Amino acid sequence: MERADAERWMTAALAQAEAALRSDDVPVGAVVVDAEGAVVGVGRNERELTGDPTAHAELVALRNAAAQRGDWNLADCTLVVTLEPCAMCAGAVLAARMPRVVYGAWDDKAGAAGSVYDLLRDRRLPHRVDVLTGIMADESAALLARFFEQRRDG
C-alpha cells in the first residue's frame, strides 16, 4: 500500500470525523476501501445521534460496505479509521475477514490494534490483520483533543 493512497483515504475518514461533530458525537471517522482503491463504505461515530452504543465509526462503515456490496465478507477491503479501533471494532474487522487496517491516532485507553491490546495480530486467533499506524495521526489526534477540550470548557 502506498502512503499517498493511505493519506488520501485518511483524508476521507477525517471528513467523516468532522461530520460526527454535527451530532455532538466523538469525532472519529472511517472508510472501507476495496482492492481497486474505491471507497465502498463510510462511517462516523453515531452513538449520540442514534442512541446505539455500538454505532462506532468502524462498525457503521463496515455495515455500509457490506450493504453496498451485498456481502459480509470484506476479505478484499481495507478499513481506514482516524482512531485506533477498540476491542469491539477489532472483533468486527476479524469477523469481516478484512486483511488490513490503517489508522491515525493511537488510543492509549481502549485501543485494540497495538496500544492496550493487539487483537488484530493475536497469534491465538485464526485470522490476523496487517496494521498500518500513524497515518495523519497529528490531524486525527488534534480533532479529538479540540472536541474534548471544548466539552471540558463548556
Structure summarized in a few sentences:
The chain is of the alpha/beta class.
SSE layout and pairing:
Layout lengths: L2 H18 L8 E5 L5 E6 L2 H4 L6 H13 L8 E6 L3 H9 L4 E6 L24 E3 L4 H17 L1
Parallel strand pairs: 3-4, 4-5
Antiparallel strand pairs: 1-2, 1-3
SSE string, helices as H and strands as E: HEEHHEHEEH
Biggest sheet architecture: 5 strands, mixed
Mean pLDDT: 96
* Low-confidence parts: none
* Cross-sheet strand order for the largest sheet: 2-1-3-4-5
How large a portion of the residues is in β-strands, by DSSP E?
Answer: 15-25%
Principal-axes geometry comes out as globular
Q: How large, in whole angstroms, is the Cα Rg?
A: 14 Å
Structure description:
The chain has a five-stranded mixed beta sheet with strand order 2-1-3-4-5. The protein is built from five helices and five strands. With 154 residues, it is of the alpha/beta class. The longest helix is centred in the N-terminal third of the chain and has 18 residues, at 3-20. A hairpin with a 5-residue loop joins strand 1 and strand 2 (39-44). The model has no long low-confidence stretch (mean pLDDT 96).
